Amino acid sequence: MFPAYVALTAALVITPGATTAVVVRNALEGGWRSGVWAAVGAAVGNSTHAAIAGLGLAVMLAGSPRLFVAIQLAGGVYLAWLALQSLRRVIAHRALPASDAILATADPRRAHHAWREGVSVNLLNPSIATFYLTVVPSFVPASASTGYYVGLAATHVGLAFAVHTAWAVLLDRLRHVLVNPRARVILEGTTAVTMALLAARVIMTAL
């Protein structure tokens, strides 16, 4: 059963989504370090959802449809706000050259900003709450101890962190391509559109 869970989880975390878009956005702004800090924040968000589900609070959340809808709407609005920020930079031609982005990593405020966005995007992501509420328990044997659930949650958190870190490093390795301001504008514009589409989907699902 565990190999099947790993395969399913890997397929889910490899598929680009809202968290990937936030990691990419921060890697564009501050180099690989900012991208990794966003990935760390996302891991904290995943761990929080896992803890909540493990304590049974997720069941209470599922029993309150209005509260769940409110979280979905908040997540959609947050993604829309991130998309707007990226779009504003594209319009104002503020996409940094790669060399400037690397220098910007020395600013601890940049790391904290990236971490905060990573935490926020996952805490406000209802699909992660649903994952821990419905998917993870289905792979826990009836006679399993609490440690088995912890192992499943840790597997998801670890795989997601590895994939998001890989995105950050990949963008850093491609910095010689991104020296071209037009390429950076196109990539950030694509990120903005992706987050806007994800925001629209989350909000429409909630409504």
Could you describe the 3D structure shown?
The chain is 84% helix and 0% strand. The chain has 207 residues and is an all-alpha fold. It has one domain. Helix 2 packs antiparallel against helix 8, helix 2 (18-54) crosses helix 9 (181-206) and helix 4 (65-91) packs antiparallel against helix 9. The chain is globular and about 55 Å long. The termini are far apart.
Task: Please describe the topology of this protein.
Elements: H1 2-14, H2 18-54, H3 57-62, H4 65-91, H5 98-104, H6 108-123, H7 126-138, H8 146-173, H9 181-206
Helix pairs in contact: 1-8, 2-5, 2-6, 2-7, 2-8, 2-9, 4-9
Instruction: Tell me the distance between the termini.
Output: 36 Å
Structural class: mainly alpha
Strand content: under 5%
| Helix proportion range | over 70%
Q: Overall pLDDT, averaged?
A: 78
* Topology, number of strands: 0
N-to-C SSE string, H for helix and E for strand: HHHHHHHHH
Query: From the alpha-carbon coordinates, what is the Rg to the nearest angstrom?
Result: 18 Å
Task: Return residue spans where pLDDT drops below 50 for at least 5 consecutive residues.
Answer: 96-106
By DSSP (H or I, 4+ residues per run), the number of helices equals 9
Main β sheet profile: none
Q: How many domains, in number, for the residues? A: 1
Considering the chains and any ligands shown, give keywords for the structure:
single chain, 207 residues, mainly alpha, 9 helices, globular
